[in-house]
Amino acid sequence: MQLDIMTEERLAVSAFGALGGIVYLVIAVRCSDQTTDAPSRYGVAGVGLATAVLVMLRAISPIIGYSILCLAMVAVYLADLVQEERAQRRRVASLAPRPPVPALPMVWIVVAALSTLMLLPYALSGVERVAAALTGVCALAMAAIALRVASAPTQLVGCDPQTESIKEHSSRAVRAGLACVLAVGIVFVFTGFVNDTLPAVTPFERALNSASFFLWLSLLICVAWYVLRVSRPHPAATQ
After folding, report:
1. Which of 102, 106, 122 minimizes the C-alpha distance to 114?
2. SS (H, E, C) 125-194
């Protein structure tokens, strides 16, 4: 039974790595004329395909392969963020005073960062310690990216500042929210993977996996609701 679970996880991680590698390879080819975008996509494609092969050949465990894929995904986010930061600044204007980070997105970021605490039992017990550390780094990096995105100044370039401000606010909320959802999702999938491979799972470990799932689902619903709210073209949406 344990062997069957390991085989299923190996196949799942390999398939995920291969699919991700192919998708990023296609994206890299399509944006090959944009030298700032293509290299990071080629890199992730190579990591995904290599990880798929290594996991299938049993050179690395499925959970280590999963952690490597998470790191590659975070690397793309970081590359995009650095590219955006280095890009020529557009005209920046603020129609009304606002906090550095809106209240609800700040809650998402804190939740995403705190979700890494669910990895401590696995790291401290020595069960997949390296994978737990890598997963924690990925989740914290995604939370940091979300914080940077959410705190970015409003950037307007058109002739309709009010409409453009709503769209820009919504876009920022989408990017920050998805980064937080991914951060918690990384933790949720990790706990599920490790629990399936353990000879015996304690009630606390089961509770951690269930809690991470409900946290991820609640965060996803909250982000979706907020994005729909700020996308509505009325003054309350920009507060």
Report:
1. 106
2. CCCCHHHHHHHHHHHHHHHHHHHHHHCCCCECCCCCHHHHHHHHHHHHHHHHHHHHHHHHHHHHHHHHHH
DSSP the chain: -HHHHHHHHHHHHHHHHHHHHHHHHHHHHHTTT-TTTHHHHHHHHHHHHHHHHHHHTTSS-HHHHHHHHHHHHHHHHHHHHHHHHHSPPPPB--SS---SS-HHHHHHHHHHHHGGGGGHHHHHTTTTHHHHHHHHHHHHHHHHHHHHHHTSPPB--SS-HHHHHHHHHHHHHHHHHHHHHHHHHHHHHHHHHHHHHSSS--HHHHHHHHHHHHHHHHHHHHHHHHHHHHTSSSGGGG-
Whether the per-residue pLDDT at 235 is higher than 80: the answer is no
The CA-atom distances, in angstroms, between 124 and each of 116, 132, 151, 207 are: 13, 9, 34, 17
Residues in a beta bridge with 155: 92
Residue type, 167: K
- Single-letter amino acid, residue 220: L
Which residues does residue 92 pair with via DSSP β-bridges, in sequence order? Answer: 155
Query: pTM value?
Result: 0.76
Instruction: Tell me the torsion sign for CA atoms 73, 68, 111, 114.
Output: negative
Q: What is the pLDDT of residues 117-163, one digit of tens each?
A: 999 888 887 767 888 888 999 999 999 998 888 887 665 555 555 66
